[in-house]
Amino acid sequence: MEKDCSYSMDDFSRIKKIDAHLHYYTSNDAFAQFAKTQQVHLVSINVDFMEDEWLPLSKQKEIASQLKEKHSDSYSFIDAIPFKPAITPSVIEDACQQIDVEKRNGAIGVKIWKNIGMKITYRDQLVMIDNPVFTPLLEHLETTKLPLLGHFGEPRNCWLPLSEMTVESDKKYYSSHPEFHMFLHKEMPSHKEQIEACNHMLTKHPKLNFIGAHLGSSEYSITEIARRLDQYPNMNMDLAERVCHLQHQAIENHQEVYDFMIKYQDRLIYGSDMVFTDSKSEEEQFNELERRWKSQWQFFTQTNMQNTWEVYGTFKGLGLPKEVIDKIYFRNAIKAYPSLSFLEQ
Ligand SMILES: [Zn+2]
């Protein structure tokens, strides 16, 4: 029975999908071309990192407009709301105008990164997203109906010592990014405070079309994710870089994770969080892309025992029904980012 209602591994390249969270930071269009052969529409996210490690936002924008022009059938982008290291009301005013420009240039949504709540200041204090200074910006997004993808906070592991982190991928990331490892920065807001700031913003802006990146930073508990999705009907969440946390929970609570995916099948959006860059070889990136797409597809569609390097232990695939996969991999992204509706034709 399972065979008929679930997709096979080979079906991956046969059905239409959207990878709604990745970072296309190279003008090499080989990945966009490949995506087309796999029936994947890529949504690349520009981020205002304000850090030298990453490609500057101006360059990201240049790449986005090139790829959009050349590959509009397999590529869309979400643009960054530009801030400054120190926010002022005039920075917010400029950001509102910039959002309109980005929308006209074809952005399907806009993104705010975790530096709000972790780095950026207002009146010499760290500023969280529920600070009233952001109200005009959030109201502007409500009026223009442009979706907001928000990455607020970090996985809860970020507040734990490396030895207590639940997945290997978090351990790897925070050991190389101590500046973001909040366990080492006790003066910074707690995980709970980060989530509360986001919740508070959602309470104040019920008309905002909000997508919580990375399972809204509530990845550690499907119960907590469910609670927030119940409480905030205008919130959807993407799975980018957090599928491993569902896999981790499936080791002990397989049925609960399955039931969660069924219950919230209209609210979750697939994203791989791949980063395409000039600083790695094309081959290495293709291998990684293939690995993520296939291993995550396997987890959602098959019911065999599986493992990945990110997760400690073996877990059973969820074998979700086809109609649920169609939503998570395609339809929900279109609902959250209505500009993608041309893909339905
Ligand atoms: Zn990302």
Give the helix/strand layout.
Elements: H1 2-5, E1 17-25, H2 30-37, E2 40-45, H3 57-70, E3 75-80, E4 86-87, H4 89-104, E5 110-112, E6 121-122, E7 125-126, H5 135-144, E8 148-150, H6 168-176, H7 191-204, E9 210-212, H8 222-231, E10 235-238, H9 243-263, E11 268-269, E12 275-277, H10 282-301, E13 305-306, E14 315-316, H11 322-336
Parallel strand pairs: 1-2, 1-12, 2-3, 3-5, 4-6, 5-8, 8-9, 9-10, 10-11
Antiparallel strand pairs: 6-7, 13-14
Helix pairs in contact: 4-5
Query: What is the fourth-level CATH superfamily?
Result: Metal-dependent hydrolases
Ligand set: zinc ion
Level-2 CATH architecture:
Alpha-Beta Barrel
Total helical elements: 11
What is the mean predicted local confidence, pLDDT?
96
Distance between the termini: 31 Å
Strand order of the largest sheet: 11-10-9-8-5-3-2-1-12
Q: What amount of the residues lies in strands?
A: 5-15%
Task: Write down the secondary-structure element order.
Answer: HEHEHEEHEEEHEHHEHEHEEHEEH
Give the low-pLDDT segments: none
Q: What structural category do the secondary elements indicate?
A: alpha/beta
Fraction of residues in H or I helices: 40-55%
Main sheet properties: 9 strands, parallel
What is CATH's topology name?
TIM Barrel
User: What general outline do the C-alpha atoms trace?
Assistant: globular
Please report the total strand number as a whole number: 14
Q: Radius of gyration in whole Å, from Cα? A: 19 Å
Domain unit count: 1
CATH C-level: Alpha Beta
What features would you describe in this structure?
This protein is of the alpha/beta class and 345 residues long. It has a single domain (16-281, 327-344), classed as Metal-dependent hydrolases (TIM Barrel, Alpha-Beta Barrel). It is built from eleven helices and 14 strands. It has helices spanning 2-5, 30-37, 57-70, 89-104, 135-144, 168-176, 191-204, 222-231, 243-263, 282-301, 322-336; strands at 17-25, 40-45, 75-80, 86-87, 110-112, 121-122, 125-126, 148-150, 210-212, 235-238, 268-269, 275-277, 305-306, 315-316. The strands form three sheets. The protein has a nine-stranded parallel β-sheet with strand order 11-10-9-8-5-3-2-1-12. A hairpin with an 8-residue loop joins β13 (305-306) and β14. The radius of gyration is 19 Å and the shape is globular. It starts with a helix and ends in a 9-residue tail after the last helix. The relative contact order is 0.15. Bound molecules: zinc ion. The site of zinc ion has 5 residues, from β1.
